[in-house]
Amino acid sequence: MRIIHNLDEMTETARGWLAGGSVGFVPTMGFLHQGHKTLVQAAHQECEISVASIFVNPVQFEESEDLIRYPRDLSRDLQLLSTTSVDVVFVPRAEEIYPAGFSTFVMPTSSPWAVQSAKGAGSWIYARGVATIITKLFQLVRPDVAYFGQKNAQQIAIVRQVVRDLNIDVGLRILPTVRESDGLALGSRNHFLTQLERRAARVLYRALLAGKALVDGNVRNPAEIEKAMIDLVVTEPVVNLDYVKVCHSDTLSAVDTILPGTMFMIAAHIGKVHFIDNIIWRGGTNWLL
Ligand code: PAF
Asked: How many Å lie between the centroid of ligand 1 and the Cα of residue 27?
């Protein structure tokens, strides 16, 4: 496992891979968990060369507080990655990614990801931040395939838009959300919850499953399903619901009726932790849970 910090070294290395086979890339903001590990293992199995990046991207945070509070533990991350067969870990420095005088951002102008939360998450700052860093990382690593977990639906929608609009030659591979045994989606900050909060957090996946049950029972009205999901979440007082959304799984735009490809999204704050999760109906009995 080779660790690269320097941008020129990354560029040189990626150039050397051009004839060496396919490159699978897992971009992350670190504080890795089993979900990330699953992505790295898939990249290793499916591509000749596998790369993971760790970079807490300052420009996708709306509040500097959140950036400062974002959990970091590079040595633990490297330890976890050393148990995979990842070839390269790219850990660029913020001052090299955004040097003094940096002024070119990638700005998606439509808002299919405009899933507004109470705090305005899903805003243009987040979209611009993700679009900019992913474009830079794709330039530096030059992957053939980039891997994302289904949980980050908003991020995936942004990346998909950037790749399409800027003709970036990379395939996106979306893997199912990795969950704890009670259904809670794995996340870097799950273990910051108190016992009480952790127990309450189960309601998020239960709400998604309540939506699923209605669809399985032939309900096709998004408002009815959103209401049922909300009614369930509010039974847990420590869970601060941001939104539930029933939308198209690629564009994240709202739908009038439930069709195959519809996504059910939920976001909430529990204590200091922000949670997002989703499931997708593929049609019939086929669900991406
Ligand atoms: O998890 C993230 O936010 C990723 O690292 C990405 C998509 C590169 C944006 O920083």
From this structure: 6
Average pLDDT over residues 162-188: 96
Total-model pTM: 0.93
Catalytic residues: 36
Nearest CA owner, ligand 1 atom 9: 130
Cβ distance 28 to 114 under 8 Å?
A: no
Radius of gyration over every alpha carbon of the chain, rounded to an integer in angstroms: 19
Q: How far apart are CA 75 and CA 288, in angstroms?
A: 33
Point out the ligand 1 atom lying closest to the alpha carbon of residue 55. 5
Atom of ligand 1 nearest to the CA of 56: 10
pLDDT digits (tens, 9 = 90+) for 222-253: 999 999 999 999 999 999 999 999 999 988 88
Domains by residue range for the chain, with CATH: 2-175 (3.40.50.620), 190-279 (3.30.1300.10)
